[in-house]
Each structure stands twice: as structure tokens, then as C-alpha cells.
Amino acid sequence: MSDEHAQIITGSCLCGAVEFELTNAFRFFFFCYCEQCRRLSGTAHIANLSSETNSLLWKKGQEQIARFDMPGRNFTKAFCKTCASPVPYVSNETGRTIVPAGCLHGAPIVESATRIFVHEAPPWSQPEALSRLPGHKGYPPEF
Ligand SMILES: [Zn+2]
Ligand SMILES: [Zn+2]
């Protein structure tokens, strides 16, 4: 795919302080269930897109971003200082652009998607367990 035909995808944090755009062409889509990603996300897994090329363009709020790099390890979280939503960052270790999928406004175009470190997934996040739960369009009536 040549750049002149590349689609652009946009994203933002929850409060709207941070807005960005980049090329909608990602090499990997990782759902990582490892303990470190679980703690970084506060939920069962992260859902991060990865791109070999950095086409990231900050439209707004780059100075609003804080970043945590775990000493000695390849775990990073960049987030909006106001609302704490995760936002994209460039990995110090690999140079890849990492984009939390949940902050995008559209559907990412991905070459390869996979779940990793699945043996570390907590029991409450297993697909079989989740599929047994009732689903509601909003809060359940008894809430
Ligand atoms: Zn924000
Ligand atoms: Zn992980």
C-alpha cells in the first residue's frame, strides 16, 4: 500500500484533551493477558496495535500526556494527565508505534491479530465464563 492511498484513522482520550491521527495500517494487534498488562490496564488484557512506521500526528494535547516506562522492562503506558485514558506512544525498546485500540474512533486495519500470554488470564476473563453472563443494552433492571 502506498502512502498516498493510505487511510487515516483518528483517536482521542475520554476528556478530549488529547487528539491524534495516524495511518490506518497496523502490523500486529495484540491482546496481552500477562500480569503486567493486567495491572497497567486494570482489566483482563490490553488491546494494543503496533506499527513499524511512525505516522503519528498529534492534533491536540501532546503536552497533556504523561508516560510510565517500567524500569528494566518493556512495559509502557502513556496516558492523558486529566482523564488517565491510555494514548499512543513510541516504544523505547522497539521503535514501534503502539496504539491502544480503545482510543481509536474507527476500526483498525490489521495484518495479524493474536492473544498472547493466555495462560496468565484470570478465570473471570475466560470466554466461556463471559459467554454465560447475561447481556443488557444498559444497566440491568436490578442495578
Ligand atoms: Zn483526557
Ligand atoms: Zn502483557
How would you portray this structure in words?
- By secondary structure, the chain is mainly beta.
- It contains two helices and eleven strands; from the N terminus they run E-E-E-H-E-E-E-E-E-E-E-E-H.
- The strands form three sheets. A five-stranded mixed sheet has the order 9-10-4-3-11.
- Strand 7 and strand 8 (86-87) form a beta hairpin.
- The protein is globular, with a radius of gyration of 16 Å.
- The model has no long low-confidence stretch (mean pLDDT 94).
- The structure holds zinc ion (ZN) (2 copies).
Could you say what the CATH architecture is? Beta Complex
Query: Which CATH class?
Result: Mainly Beta
CATH topology: Metal Binding Protein, Guanine Nucleotide Exchange Factor, Chain A
Order of helices and strands: EEEHEEEEEEEEH
**Beta-strand segment tally:** 11
The amount of helix comes to under 10%
Strand neighbour order, sheet with most strands: 9-10-4-3-11
Instruction: Based on Cα principal axes, name the global outline.
Output: globular
Helix-and-strand structural type: mainly beta
Number of individual domains: 1
Main sheet, how many strands, which sense, barrel? 5 strands, mixed
Rg result: 16 Å
Strand content: 35-45%
Low-confidence stretches: none
Which compounds are bound in this model? zinc ion
Query: For the residues shown, what is the average pLDDT?
Result: 94
Distance between the termini: 49 Å
Number of helices: 2
